[in-house]
Design goal:
Layout (H helix, E strand, L loop, with lengths): L7 E9 L2 H19 L4 E6 L4 H7 L7 H6 L3 E6 L7 H15 L4 E7 L17 E7 L3 E8 L12 E5 L2 H16 L5 E6 L7 H13 L6 E6 H10 L6 E4 L1 H15 L6 E5 L7 E5 L16 H13 L3 H16 L13 H25 L5
Helix pairs in contact: 1-9, 1-10, 1-11, 5-6, 7-8, 9-10, 10-11
Bound molecules: 1,4-dihydronicotinamide adenine dinucleotide and magnesium ion (MG).
Amino acid sequence: MTDPAPRTFRVASIPGDGVGREVVDAGRVVLDEALRLHGASAVEWTELPWGSAYYGETGRMMPTDGLEVLQDFDAIYFGAVGWPGVPDHVSLWGLRLAICQGFDQWANVRPVRFHPGVTSPLRKADTTELDWVVVRENSEGEYAGLGGRNLSARTGGEVAVQTSLFTEVGCERIMRFAFDLARTRDRKTLTSVTKSNAQQYGMVLWDEVFARVAADYPDVETESVLVDAMAARFVLRPETLSVVVASNLNADILSDLGSALAGSLGLAASANLNPERRYPSMFEPVHGSAPDIAGQGMANPVGAVASGALMLDHLGLPAAADAVRAAIDAVTAAGVLTRDLGGAATTEDVTAALVAALREAATSEHLEKADVVPQH
Ligand code: NAI
Ligand code: MG
């Protein structure tokens, strides 16, 4: 299968810090190969050297006109930020959150996928088909950045206020997005994660908007679950999940849990979408810069590669995207696994295996097509 309407897409790559650099390099190789094999579209990459090293030189995580620079790209392919020596809230707000919020990337899609050949800590995973998606509200909630410090002059008596922001518009748009996604899946179920028993303003608004929007989707089954119960549910009854919609913080935590259940944080992919396409969307693995293993060539590139597949979906190249996902499954099934998954493969080994799997699948697809040509 090939994708229609060949085009050259302009993508900004921001490897950032630590293993972000290693996995973005790997992802680019795999995506280029998938595009070469499926249709005539291509990506023209522009690498931007922003991150903690850039901060060391300039005192900023990205230039003051960073968003203007990014605005003209079709998408952003991101690694990770954060490095010892730069406070994490400075690196995160200075780059990743600055882009997500500046470009109104309000929907963060985080599929939880289980791969053949990867051992899950869940016993159930061996015998049950598991596959769900966490949809994270990505523009407000607990990460709205509202609050203040130093409200007390007394030493040792400092006060900090960190306020969550929930708007009806913000809740409604992420919920409609999640309902639309639920409609495309075999199991048309949407679970809303709440904490309205304890958080009686923001989360009660969240619940009310969910109930109102649900009325427009009678074909989608719905439920509302408290976040603490949801954590247990991820472990105990994950087969009941299809699409899970949650606020910024709740979904952040739950999606890390989901990826750990799938076998490793290094597997998890994510898309930060501006669904209106007024701004470029950003695709990045869920994991961070992993300073403990950075520079050793042992980072798992699968999360970054799978994020690249989400980018291809977004660019309208589903054949190449599906080919990348199939290659990931072929490689894990063959036991080519990095250390986080109990294997001994390097980042480079996995990358080479992914490229080989793409070629092999394309060749057999080609042969299959040749088979159906009538013989005279
Ligand atoms: P982390 O995700 O970097 O690492 C957590 C654990 O997972 C570590 O043991 C690490 O070795 C392992 N791990 C992560 N990615 C892996 C991969 N691709 N392959 C194999 N193992 C992998 O989270 P941590 O340690 O809490 O944070 C480290 C830095 O990353 C901090 O500065 C933090 O602020 C930043 N960070 C950035 C994110 C982003 O840019 N989106 C997200 C999360 C953290
Ligand atoms: Mg996280």
